[in-house]
């Protein structure tokens, strides 16, 4: 077990370092082009920082045939993403992250909230239909993500600022791709190590998925958040989190498609069901934070973040007690 935990932490460090490099590339890219920040953060960066979730969930579903682990990974990662955004908001309180966010980030998070609502309906038998072995919820997820892409594409101008910067942009793209490859390989190894930890420890796969996989695969978002805030690119920092969460739901849909034994939504155990409720509450609070006008009162500004942190820690307490 000690060797497995050591491997887990080493791989996690590699993911963090690669994610910081990617964030720096993206920040410079947005400054050298006219491509909108919401497009870069909500689609491109979100997709890359969600690569760990993509690799680990698909490998958990296809290779390990463990739907519970895959669901725990995504639901745990999304809950943890909003948690780290709330914590980051308190740590960088002087920056007032949510006073700088744009409307496209609000729309993306609203779509994520709808996805949570659909999964919540699935839990109570109101949305349990299937087409073949694929749950109908997966089709709703794919439709909502397509809507998000259209909203972002229509909402921002996307063109190069100056043809002379093409050479530097090429270098940034190469660095971006190399870092992404490192993240993919490390994430695949993390999923294997986590599965071994779950088997040896005897703890439920969904809780292990939420904790070890969910946290480890959220490291890119956490590293990117800190890196982008330090670079004073606040809208990109928030956009990466909300974009990653919506993209993560697409991964659930892809996992559902690959899991031929039935719909992945039929395998939601107690821990994952709790994560759906936690994620829904967090997402509603985050939507409120994104929608409200500039808040100058410190207490009113931090209150939703404190509520998100409380909800997450309460979830941890319930999960440990049930375990």
From TrEMBL:
Question: Which UniProt keywords are given for this protein, alphabetically ordered?
Answer: Membrane, Transmembrane, Transmembrane helix
The source's superkingdom equals Bacteria
Q: Which ranges does the record mark as transmembrane?
A: 6-23, 35-55, 75-92, 104-125, 131-151, 172-194, 206-229, 241-262, 274-291, 298-316
Its placement in the membrane is given as: Multi-pass membrane protein
The Sodium/calcium exchanger membrane region domain is annotated at 7-148, 173-319
Report the Pfam families cross-referenced here: Na_Ca_ex
Q: Where in the cell is it found?
A: Membrane
Q: What name has this protein been given in UniProt?
A: Sodium/calcium exchanger membrane region domain-containing protein
The protein's organism comes out as Turicibacter faecis
Upper taxonomic lineage: Bacteria, Bacillati, Bacillota, Erysipelotrichia, Erysipelotrichales
């Amino acid at each position: 077990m000690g060797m497995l935990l050591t491997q887990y932490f080493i791989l996690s460090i590699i993911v963090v370092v690669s994610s910081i490099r990617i964030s720096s590339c993206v920040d410079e890219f947005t400054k050298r082009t006219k491509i909108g920040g919401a497009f870069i953060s909500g689609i491109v960066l979100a997709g890359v920082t969600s690569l760990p979730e993509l690799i680990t969930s698909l490998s958990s579903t296809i290779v390990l045939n463990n739907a519970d682990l895959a669901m725990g990974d995504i639901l745990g990662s999304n809950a943890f993403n909003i948690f780290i955004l709330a914590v980051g908001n308190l740590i960088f309180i002087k920056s007032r992250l949510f006073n700088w966010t744009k409307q496209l980030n609000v729309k993306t998070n609203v779509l994520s909230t709808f996805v949570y609502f659909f999964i919540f309906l699935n839990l109570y038998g109101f949305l349990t239909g299937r087409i073949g072995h694929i749950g109908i919820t997966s089709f709703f997820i794919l439709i909502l993500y397509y809507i998000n892409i259209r909203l972002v594409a229509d909402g921002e101008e996307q063109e190069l600022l100056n043809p002379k910067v093409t050479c530097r942009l090429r270098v940034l793209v190469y660095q971006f791709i190399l870092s992404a490859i490192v993240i993919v390989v490390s994430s695949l190894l993390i999923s294997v190590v986590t599965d071994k930890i779950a088997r040896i420890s005897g703890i439920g796969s969904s809780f292990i998925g939420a904790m070890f996989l969910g946290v480890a695969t959220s490291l890119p978002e956490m590293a990117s958040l800190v890196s982008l805030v330090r670079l004073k690119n606040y809208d990109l920092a928030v956009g990466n989190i909300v974009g990653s969460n919506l993209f993560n739901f697409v991964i659930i849909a892809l996992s559902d498609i690959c899991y031929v034994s039935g719909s992945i939504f039929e395998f939601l155990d107690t821990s994952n069901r709790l994560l759906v409720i936690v994620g829904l509450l967090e997402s509603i609070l985050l939507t409120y934070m994104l929608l409200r006008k500039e808040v100058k009162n410190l207490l009113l500004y931090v209150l939703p973040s404190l509520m998100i942190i409380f909800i997450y820690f309460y979830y941890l307490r319930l999960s440990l007690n049930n375990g």
